[in-house]
């Protein structure tokens, strides 16, 4: 884009107004995606497992290592979680999905913010990597006890279980297009440049992990 070698591009990482001006670009939101944790947890039915941001961050930091850990059991009273190791699977390549997940975890977990923060590609403290969303999905599908993260339609395509997440409204909800729309309905876009680093909502029905992809074009084509 900056070298004027292409006409337009799409990015999952938004540019702020200063960056757009310095690069001579115009940006606007193009499409939206819901990101969800995915699990392969024998003995637990689809949609039964509950997670919140703090626990999810602790799992991906390697600080919660078994499925029946007290923090997980506290979120899932009455659910018989198996006493098996948690196998973390993450993207090994640069990914907008990773950027969205780490942006969310940084927002909800001070431990994550201090340890790793936001990035499209990380040096993960635990787990093993896979290339691309389809690669992650295949590894999770064949690995009992595993957890990862995928874009919603990719998780659906591979038939993977998606846990409920705790919303800012104080309830646990399952990912769905309706929940993603509830988040988008309250988005406040910063002008100029439609900059929106975090999509959040006070609605109890809003999915807490929604990301935007942006179109970028030269200001003076």
Q: How many structural units, i.e. domains?
A: 1
Query: How many helices in DSSP terms?
Result: 8
Classify the helix fraction into a percent range. 25-40%
Structural class: alpha/beta
Task: Please provide a written account of the structure.
With 221 residues, the chain is of the alpha/beta class. The chain has a single domain, classed as Periplasmic binding protein-like II (D-Maltodextrin-Binding Protein, domain 2, 3-Layer(aba) Sandwich), CATH 3.40.190. 29% of the residues lie in helices and 22% in strands. It has helices at residues 17-23, 53-60, 70-75, 96-108, 110-115, 132-141, 152-157, 177-184; strands spanning 9-11, 25-40, 50-51, 87-91, 128-130, 146-151, 164-166, 172-173, 210-218. A hairpin with a 5-residue loop joins β7 (164-166) and β8 (172-173).
Topology:
Elements: E1 9-11, H1 17-23, E2 25-40, E3 50-51, H2 53-60, H3 70-75, E4 87-91, H4 96-108, H5 110-115, E5 128-130, H6 132-141, E6 146-151, H7 152-157, E7 164-166, E8 172-173, H8 177-184, E9 210-218
Parallel strand pairs: 3-7, 4-5, 4-6
Antiparallel strand pairs: 1-9, 2-6, 2-9, 7-8
Any key phrases for this structure?
221 residues; D-Maltodextrin-Binding Protein, domain 2; 8 helices; alpha/beta; 9 strands; three-stranded mixed beta sheet; six-stranded mixed beta sheet
């Amino acid at each position: 884009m900056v070298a004027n070698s292409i006409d337009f591009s799409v990015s999952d990482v938004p540019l702020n107004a200063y960056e757009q001006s310095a690069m001579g670009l115009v940006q606007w939101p193009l499409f939206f995606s819901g990101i969800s944790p995915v699990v392969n947890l024998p003995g637990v039915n689809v949609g039964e497992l509950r997670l919140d941001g703090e626990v999810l961050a602790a799992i991906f930091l390697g600080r919660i290592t078994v499925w029946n850990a007290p923090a997980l059991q506290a979120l899932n009273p009455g659910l018989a979680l198996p006493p098996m190791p948690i196998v973390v699977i993450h993207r090994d390549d640069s990914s907008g999905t990773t950027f969205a997940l780490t942006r969310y975890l940084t927002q909800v977990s001070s431990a994550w913010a201090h340890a790793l923060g936001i990035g499209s590609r990380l040096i993960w403290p635990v787990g093993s990597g896979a290339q691309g969303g389809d690669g992650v999905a295949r590894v999770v599908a064949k690995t009992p006890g595993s957890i990862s993260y995928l874009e919603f339609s990719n998780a659906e395509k591979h038939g993977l279980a998606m846990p409920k997440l705790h919303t800012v409204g104080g309830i646990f909800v399952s990912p769905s297009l309706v929940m993603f729309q509830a988040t988008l309905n309250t988005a406040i876009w910063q002008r100029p440049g439609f900059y929106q680093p975090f999509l959040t909502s006070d609605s109890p029905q809003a999915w807490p992990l929604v990301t935007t992809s942006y179109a970028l074009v030269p200001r003076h084509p």
